[in-house]
Design brief:
Chain lengths: 183, 176
Amino acid sequence: MKIKDAEIITLMQDPRTQDKGVRALMDAYQSRLYWHIRRIIVDGDLAQDTLQDTFIKAYQNFHQFKNDSQLYTWLYRIATNEALQQVNKMKKMQKTDEDPEYYMQNLVADNMEGDAEEIQILLQKAIQSLPEKQKLVFMMRYYDDLPYEEISKIVDMSVGTLKTNYHYAKQKIEEYIKENYEK
Amino acid sequence: MKEFDIEKLERKNIYKVPDHVFENIQDRVMHDVKPARKAPIFKMNWAYAAAASLALIFGATFVFNSDDTPATNVGNSKGIYAENKNEPKTESEIAYETLKSDVISVDDNDQDSDIQDTKTDSYAQQSGEKVKAAPVKAVSKKEEKQVNEYLDSFSNSEISELASNSTQDVYLDLYN
């Protein structure tokens, strides 16, 4: 039986049951958050580290969580911030003459499954060619199917701006795939 | 490719995922979280720390001094014992004390009528016993002052004369 957010919150708020609460929180959200982080960072090891940091931060700052927002919205916000920080570190560490977009697309090629479909690989490469905000909005809407209202709380953008960003992101991705698809 | 709609594309994760990835993450998180909770760091404001140090110093000083007080008394105890010894009193001293107790007993009689105790005390004092005159202790400072003023107005010879009379009176009261 899947544990509800209310139960996780109750467990996390009591110091005696906090361990159990962290376990329940991870069981409930580790998969969704992992894939959210992984699509931003791409690198598997760094994604693991980032997810670990996300849960630790959630544990340490749980007193700041307010019940007026959804638990997953709060967790997505932490995960997104941690992932973007990690991407910035990666970009600083890369060679100066290397194009960041090209670097991320190479990372996609290095991390994909051997039997991945070409169209799926192109889709991931197209996502990595997007500006940061468009990338985030597109991934949360397309893969996680989050409502615009919730995405708005995660990335601090208005719903109108989010819709515009999603529209442009989708257009760019489709064009990229059309141009690069060989079959 | 002429027509393409990504909305119709299947949502797939194409990245390689290591085995037991979530178990490893959970173990690492629990490992990082538990020690931090088991060993909380006690942080104290410097002002509180300073206040606590001062309290400790003054407290220790107070305790040390309070331990010294009995020792000082021990040093003086000889004097106290010397005072407490019932050395033979001179006649004028006895007379003075008797008169003093008589005057107080008269005052007490005016206020409440417990004569018997006063007489017993007076007798006890006169007979050289260690019993202290309870009424003398009980009187207020104001009364004591009045008595002293009253007694100061007498010369030594007058006091001796009055004392001899009062002693007789006491005996009379007791044995009549």
